[in-house]
Amino acid sequence: MKYLNAATGALLMVMVGSTAHAESVADRRGLTLEGAKKVIAAARAEASRLKAPGGSIAVVDDGGNLLALERLDQTFAASANIAIGKARTAALFKKPTKAFEEAIKSGRTSMVTLGGDLQNFTPLQGGIPLEWEGKVVGAIGVSGAASAQQDEDLAMAGAQSLESMDLARDKIGETQTPLPVTYIESRQVSAAFRNGAVLVGEDETMMHAARNYMVHASHRDRPGLVEIHELDTDIVYVLEGTATLVTGGEPVGTKPIAPHELRGSSVTGGETRRLVPGDVVIIPNGVPHWFKEVSAPFNYYVVKVR
């Protein structure tokens, strides 16, 4: 059963911080109609579980083109176009549409002008990108449920269902080719640490299609939220400043912000460490971690490995 199609490029070998090599395929994957229907079915099942009063559910490909749409009984007609707009916006920007709604609420009203240039730009909560192995292959949008939060809950259920589907890979020309060496000069690195930036992998939501890692130049001036990465292991190397890091324990107030990404307000229990320059911490995927206290400026590298 094919849920994703693949036009395959070269087989790549990557080594990150160890002698272990990971093979991956550089490809161009797209969500199929069957896959879109499975995503909608998962969202529809969640609507039934939550006893949602209705809802239109749209799935688009990574270019924002409609693949499938269902409008549940008793749902107002306008919700269909709104759901398509949410899905299209999430796909083209590779991020949940809630981010746009919150930005506008925070005063960035100029963002609404994007609607003049981008058809169906819909900065409303309820659009979630669909990812397969870190690659955005489409998006789901929901409108017409009991609330904006329930719209997003249904969309999230659909997005999370994609990971359980089988992937059919067609490997063409399996020539092992090493990735090119990445060189980032010191001035660019220093600039990245001023506010925190992605050094490698910025063009993808989670992982670059041709590698199984990302590199962040991370900067903190204050404590943050509890983070849980369901797929990614974080390798942290402290450059400057000190921080109190809590790992493990039971996160409080956990909410999904994107597929496979959770955030919480605090942690109960866990192991506390004081980090200083030169320290290295490896945080496996699925482990809650929280920078509870920070002595600014706190700069550190994060290598994300999947």
UniProtKB/TrEMBL annotation:
Residues in Cupin type-1 domain copies: 232-294
Assigned keywords, A-Z: Signal
Record carries keyword Signal: yes
SUPFAM superfamilies cross-referenced by the UniProt entry: GlcG-like (SSF143744), RmlC-like cupins (SSF51182)
Gene3D superfamilies in alphabetical order: Haem-degrading domain, Jelly Rolls
Keyword Signal recorded: yes
Signal sequence interval, chain numbering: 1-22
Region (Disordered): 250-269
InterPro entries: Cupin_1, GlcG_carb_metab_protein, PduO/GlcC-like, PduO/GlcC-like_sf, RmlC-like_jellyroll, RmlC_Cupin_sf
The name this protein goes by in its record: Heme-binding protein GlcG (Modular protein)
